[in-house]
Specification:
The complex is a heterotrimer of chains A (517), B (233) and C (196). Chain A is an alpha/beta fold and 517 residues long. Chain A folds into 2 domains: 248 residues, P-loop containing nucleotide triphosphate hydrolases (Rossmann fold); 250 residues, Rossmann fold (3-Layer(aba) Sandwich). In chain A, the strands form 4 sheets. A 6-stranded mixed beta sheet of chain A has the order 6-7-8-3-9-10, with helices on both faces. Chain A has a 6-stranded mixed beta sheet with strand order 16-17-18-13-19-20, with helices on both faces. Chain B has 233 residues and is mainly α. In chain B, helix 5 runs antiparallel to helix 6. Chain C has one domain. Chain C starts with 7 loop residues before the first helix and ends in a 5-residue tail after the last helix. In chain C, 55% of the residues are buried. The chains are: A alpha/beta (517), B mainly alpha (233), C mainly alpha (196). Chains B and C meet through helix 1, helix 4, helix 6 and helix 7 of B and helix 1, helix 3, helix 4, helix 8 and helix 9 of C.
Chain lengths: 517, 233, 196
């Protein structure tokens, strides 16, 4: 209809990745106008990312597969255009801030694109200065990228894309690994691009932060566009309609952010009391063993190596009040209910991860001890009592089959028990498969299975739902509840308010290494 | 004070130092020259405010020197001494090159490095690959750290005493991670125009400053003095 | 798409695997501080341990030049790390020959891969060049300095002009053995997981 001002044309495109059944597209026809902001929405594996890759040329130039139809971007046929000729037209911000930078320092990263396409140095310097002042990233200049937080890295990635002055900006689940503050910054970057009249395509699970920016929303399922809204219509969707599509709520997260950042204490208690009502049968059955507690004491830690374990411990015992000053973590005493799911919240870099690392005994210099059912574990014993499922679960899978992974954790190999554990987590069909061949959620469950096999009573989860769509997030929530029912105590660090709402019995809030209940 | 050396000067320093470490010092004077040469990168590290590594190198090198000169020169035997001799020998012999290399790698930005390579007419492919190597060392360190933590939690750090398992448990997750990161890194780099057929430009203008020239002269002199005193003196 | 010219992606792959190989070399090298005989045993350790990443690398090589570039990178890095420039010709020669062998098998033949990796492993001997070249003066110095003759003998018995031939052969042999083991590991993990 309005072909004259459409900047991206996807005509009758079908695509199938080499040797894979996921993310395939069948006869997709789409066109995007200059200056519009479009959200691609849908469960994982629905083809969102594939569409973005068609536009930035990674398909067919980098990822190979069977491609039919044609994609025209700014008058160029993508199939016949070399990738570096698209670089000045299409910019892409990727999901993982860790892996998308090429340089080691921030300055080099911002000018990386313009240097590649051979712009004159004066022009590049000018662009760099503009981008830096527009995005207010002066304080990030001249630093090593490896020291930056995920949010800061993502900002640099945006700046690097900006410096190429692309007409089209693609964002592939850019918020997956970010906390709320970083997401707000990301929203500002997108708003700025929108004001500059760029065409923006966002593929995303979390909707709250983009919903006010979008002009059009495409809902994808099984490689086809199933539904389409304009911005207004999308914002007016009711919560039930959203839930029917099995997608993350558009506004819930926002409510939580306001609540959690404004008045922590009140909301937590309110939140918990709501939960209590909802789970009355749960609490009644458990009231008998209400005495069971997990006691964490002396969880203090400093990256300063001079503050040895003994010194820290002595300080606390002497009741020295100054002791918390300058520590990365200072939680002298914390009582948790056994067999419950406890959410740990707080901004990035405020000590959540340090807390988890100390609890599971990875930080040797932390004097903390854990008391469960009258037995106290400290030092290396903590490693046996606890198990942490890391944010990047790929690091903790070592063997060549799910079965071997579980057996490795057992003191004595016991195939029957292994089967039991796998069955409970729904992994039995994958027993002989390589853990790395499984999906993200399944890998997570393999890690949990090995934790159970090792007899860990206290399970720790570091951001288990980052980058997951609604259905998978719900699965994780249900699984955490089930684990708690069977007696494990669970600590889960998260930014995901939906997960908190779904499964946490209690929430603790850590700010600058201290507990804010 | 800030001295930003040209990458080419740094390369020249490495060249000289690695030539000198191949020649053993036979007289106290030559030892003096050697020690002087080693002090230059250490001082440069101090100037760059990399105090921790500068002090570490200073202590390490100093200790090895002292041990070599004052304690191990007696006719000594025994396993521990043998180990110590071997250790100090290698440290004293090759440490200067290590320090220089460390200084150069830590203080050179990838951007600078790429344009220096271009100026020296090194093919783009090699420059890109080398830049990736430099970018990847810290990544490997990060990933390996996470893997080691995971191994601790599982209690498999020593692979049940099986050397093959020890290697396998470390290597496999590391390789999986590196391959993944590499894939994403390539995708991100080529969508920003890496590997195009236009000549890459750089905002970093490489110019030899006074310091560069002074240091190059200094190192040329060191080499000349060393060679002269050793073979013709 | 099937052009034989190397692309950015290939260069990045080379960079990554070179980094891993250097780390392996470096970690094994640390053990060498313990005793000179361990220095000599690099020819066994590095080909075996390095085979795992290298066999994975070989599955990604499809064009001529990748193995050559890797050897050039190693030569440059060895130089920068202070191992001198004497070994550079050996390293690059090993790389080019290894590349040619693999090419003759179209980068698919496993037998050629074994041979190619065996040849590639010869670069490890470049590590010994400084010791061999400085041997004469080094030895006198050590003895003058009053070092026990025992240590000197150990070191130079293990590494000298004559044993270098043996060391080269050992490198090749353990390279081939390593290739077979490495291939098994790649099959066990990466092929099973569907990565290659």
């Amino acid at each position: 209809m309005e072909k004259q001002n459409s900047i991206i044309e996807i005509n009758h495109v079908s695509f199938k990745y080499k040797g894979s059944t996921e993310g395939l597209l069948t006869d997709v026809n789409l066109s995007f106008h200059q200056g519009e902001t479009v959200l691609l929405w849908g469960a994982s594996g629905c083809g969102k990312t594939t569409i973005l890759r068609l536009i930035n040329g990674l398909i067919p130039h980098y990822y190979s597969g069977d491609l039919e139809g044609e994609v025209i971007v700014d008058g160029k046929n993508v199939r016949e255009t070399e990738l570096f000729n698209l670089a000045g037209i299409v910019g892409t911000v990727f999901q993982n801030p860790r892996s998308q930078f090429f340089s080691v320092d921030t300055d080099g990263e911002i000018v990386f694109g313009p240097e590649n396409i051979g712009l004159p140095p004066e022009e590049i310097s000018k662009r760099k200065d503009t981008v830096v002042s527009e995005m207010k990233i002066e304080r990030l200049l001249n630093r090593s990228l490896f020291e930056l937080s995920g949010g800061e890295k993502q900002k640099i990635a945006c700046a690097s894309v900006s410096a190429l002055l692309p007409e089209i900006v693609l964002l592939d689940e850019p918020s997956s690994n970010l906390d709320w503050n970083a997401i707000s910054d990301l929203r500002e970057s997108i708003r700025k691009w929108k004001e500059e009249g760029k065409t923006i395509l966002i593929s995303e699970h979390r909707l709250w932060y983009v919903k006010d920016l979008v002009d059009r929303v495409l809902y994808l399922s099984e490689g086809e566009v199933k539904k389409e809204w304009n911005g207004e219509g999308f914002r007016n969707l009711s919560e039930t309609e959203v839930a029917e599509l099995k997608l993350r709520p558009t506004s819930l997260e926002e409510k939580y952010i306001d609540a959690f950042t404004d008045d922590m204490g009140q909301i937590t208690s309110k939140h918990i009391s709501e939960k209590e009502g909802a789970k009355s049968e749960d609490s009644s059955t458990r009231s008998a063993d209400k005495e069971e507690k997990v006691i964490l004491s002396e969880f203090c830690f400093s990256y300063d190596k001079k503050r040895s374990r003994r010194k820290l411990s002595k300080c606390i015992k002497d009741g020295n009040k100054e002791v918390c000053e300058g520590l990365q973590l200072c939680i002298p005493n914390l009582v948790l209910p056994e067999g419950k799911v406890i959410g740990v919240i707080g901004r990035n870099g405020t000590g959540k991860s340090t807390f988890l690392r100390c609890v599971c005994g990875l930080e040797k210099r932390c004097p903390g001890s854990i008391t469960v059912s009258g037995k106290t574990y400290s030092g290396k014993d903590r490693l046996k009592l606890t198990y942490m499922v890391m944010q990047d679960v790929n690091h903790q899978l070592f063997t060549d089959s799910v079965k071997a992974e579980v057996m490795l954790s057992m003191e004595k190999e016991d195939e029957k028990r292994c089967d039991e554990i796998l069955d409970r987590l729904g992994l039995l069909p994958f027993k002989e498969k390589h853990p790395m061949a499984l999906s993200g959620g399944q890998k997570q469950r393999v890690a949990i299975a090995s934790a159970i096999a090792a007899g860990a009573k206290l399970l720790l989860f570091d951001e288990p739902t980052s980058g997951l769509d609604y259905a998978h997030m719900k699965q994780v929530g249900d699984m955490l509840r089930n684990l708690a029912k069977t007696g494990s105590t669970i600590l889960v660090s998260t930014h995901d308010p939906e997960l908190l709402a779904l499964c946490c019995d209690e929430v603790i809030h850590i700010e600058s290494g201290k507990l804010v209940r | 004070m800030h001295i930003a050396l040209d990458p080419r000067t740094k390369l020249y320093m490495i060249l000289v130092v690695s030539m000198v470490v191949l020649m053993t010092a036979t007289t106290p004077f030559l030892w003096g020259v050697r020690i002087f040469m080693t002090m230059v990168p250490i001082i440069l590290l101090f100037i760059e405010k990399k105090y921790a590594s500068a002090i570490r190198f200073l202590i390490f090198y100093g200790l090895a020197l002292v041990l070599t000169f004052f304690f191990l020169s007696e006719e000594s035997s025994g396993i521990l001494t043998a180990i110590l001799i071997g250790y100090c020998g290698i440290v004293v012999q090759f440490m200067p090159a290590m320090i220089t290399a460390w200084y150069c790698v830590r203080t050179t930005k990838i951007d600078e490095f790429m344009s220096a390579m271009q100026k020296m007419h090194v093919p783009d492919g090699i420059a890109i690959s080398l830049a990736v190597v430099m970018r990847f060392f810290p990544t490997i360190k990060e990933e390996y750290g996470a893997i080691r933590d995971a191994m601790k939690m599982r209690g498999i750090s020593f692979g049940d005493g099986n050397a093959l398992k020890m290697v396998e448990y470390r290597m496999i997750p590391l390789l999986f991670s590196c391959v993944n990161i590499g894939d994403e890194l390539s995708a991100a780099a080529i969508t920003r125009g890496l590997g195009g057929n236009v000549k890459r430009t750089s905002i970093i203008e490489l110019k030899l400053h006074l310091w560069d020239i002074l240091l190059m002269m200094l190192f040329t002199m060191v080499l000349a003095v060393f060679v002269y005193c050793k073979y013709f003196g | 798409m099937n052009s034989s010219k190397l692309k950015a992606k290939d260069f990045i792959t080379v960079g990554i695997f070179t980094a891993i190989l250097i780390v392996v070399e470096f970690l094994c090298g640390m053990l060498g501080y313990i005793h000179p005989y361990i220095v000599a045993s690099y020819v066994v350790m590095i080909p075996l341990v390095g085979a795992i990443p290298m066999m994975l690398f070989y599955t990604k090589v499809e064009k001529f030049g990748m193995i050559t570039i890797m050897s050039v990178l190693i030569a440059i890095i060895m130089f920068v790390l202070g191992m001198g420039y004497l070994g550079a010709p050996l390293i690059v020669a090993a790389g080019v020959i290894a590349d040619l062998i693999a090419k003759s098998g179209k980068y698919k033949s496993f037998k050629k891969t074994i041979l190619s990796y065996g040849v590639f492993c010869l670069w490890i001997c470049a590590n010994y060049f400084p010791v061999i070249v400085t041997a004469d003066s080094y030895r006198t110095d050590l003895l003058d300095g009053g070092y026990s003759a025992e240590y000197c003998d150990d070191l130079f018995r293990a590494i000298n002009e004559k044993t270098i031939a043996v060391l080269l052969i050992l490198c090749f042999v353990f390279g081939c053995i390593g290739a077979v083991i490495g291939k098994k590991v790649v099959k066990k993990h990466f092929e099973k997981a569907g990565i290659v």
